[in-house]
Amino acid sequence: MLIQLVNIKVQDGTRDTFLEAFTINCEGTRKEPGNIRFDLLHDPEDDNNFFVYEIFESEAALDEHRKTDHYQTCVKMIDPITLGGRSKTYFTPVLVQDAVGA
Fold first, then answer.
1. What is an example of a GO molecular function annotated in this UniProt entry (predicted)?
2. Which residues, other chains included, contact 89 with Cβ-Cβ below 8 Å and sequence gap of 6+?
3. Domain residue spans in the chain?
4. Using an 8 Å Cβ cutoff, are 32 and 68 in contact?
């Protein structure tokens, strides 16, 4: 199981573009066989600071996700509007809802 939290900050005035891109990505990702969870959150103190909570069955499932059209479309839309790129933190499951083997 692979769990990551991705932090993405976007430029002022680009929130709507970001949400459009991530709607495409979320809808597609949630249908992938290797995806367990895919949630978009934002900082309550900064509407331009987002977090993506992702759980995939394996690194291989994440690799397959990165090859999908919805992921590629999202990246093309958000890369020009992000500030400082994307940071990722990886986690080991302890008590994860609906996780097999956690």
1. oxidoreductase activity
2. 4, 5, 7
3. 2-91
4. yes
Residues 2-91, CATH architecture:
2-Layer Sandwich (3.30)
Handedness of CA 27, 23, 85, 38 (dihedral sign): negative
Residue 11 has pLDDT above 90, yes or no: yes
Evaluate if residue 93 carries a pLDDT over 60. yes
Output the pLDDT for position 96: 82
Give me the residue label for tokens 């103190």: 45
Provide DSSP, 25-47: HHHHHTTSTTEEEEEEEEETTEE
> What is the DSSP code (8-state) at residue 80?
G
Type and span of the H or E element at 71: helix 69-78
* Residues 6+ away with beta carbon under 8 Å from 101: 1, 93
- Chain position carrying tokens 């976007």: 10
